[in-house]
Amino acid sequence: xTTGTRPRRRAGPGTGHPPGEPRRVAYLYLLPAFVxxxxxxxxxxxxxxxxxxxxxxxxxxxxxAGLANYAAIAADEGLRAAFGHALVLIVFYALAPLAIGLxxxxxxxxxKVRGLGFFRTVVFLPQVVAMVVVAVAWRRVYAPxxxxxxxxxxxxxxALTRGWLGDHAFALPAVGVVGTWFExxxxxxxxxxxxxxxxxxxxxxxxxDGAGAVKEFFAVTxxxxxxxxxxxxxxxxxxxxxxxxxxxxxxxxxxxxSTSVPxxxxxxxxxxxxxxxxxxAIGVTLTVVIFAISLVINRFADRRES
Length: 306
Known about the structure:
Layout: H1 23-51, E1 54-55, E2 63-64, H2 68-75, H3 77-111, H4 116-124, H5 131-142, H6 147-154, H7 171-195, H8 200-208, H9 213-224, H10 226-241, H11 245-250, H12 262-272, H13 276-305
Antiparallel strand pairs: 1-2
Helix pairs in contact: 1-13, 2-13, 3-7, 3-10, 4-7, 7-10, 8-9, 10-13, 12-13
């Protein structure tokens, strides 16, 4: 005797539906992760956008300002300079480490250096040191009586000694060199991991075609690590644009505004000047710039791979 209930049909071959659970069940699996993502990322971003539309000192009642805070960013020469400084730091944080990392990784990948694991650890070591500690150490290196000036004096280059972090012309490059030193290890390890996965047959075929070391690098090695290059550029560009602790510890945006960057301006305006709305607008603008540059890097990498 039948009960009149129809058996549940499972998706599979011949049913016109993909196998497995219905799509709404998959969304339920994703829901906990999305809730955490929304609570700790989407909501703060939305709140920052909301605050950027007000003039607010963080204590009294805010006043609606609309897009005035964003217009002020475009009109304020100091803020434009801060974003310009961040773009200059991209050269030191991203492009210079990429160039150095490519050379180091290519040499190490072909030279079969003994103790390569130890070398990787040493090169990567700056990444596990807090940037505050790095900044304090390099501030001592750059001091008028610091290590760098002592070395220049020891080799007879006393004319080049100076207070590096107090010089308008050299303060920003000095901060950038710290970024180069800090990021080179990360980039080198990423590229070395990518190069180690390149099939040996590709190098052998290039050598049979008469390719030398340089041509082999550009014909085989470089195209094979495009993905790692994109990852390295994304990470280092983001680090350059959001750098704060290094600038705060070494120069605090000085001398004058010669090393001011957007992240430091956010802190200074929110907690120093009480301009929370302006600080939020700078933060939102910086987020958009970071997203746009990261999107360009990844789109370019995907296009080259396809």
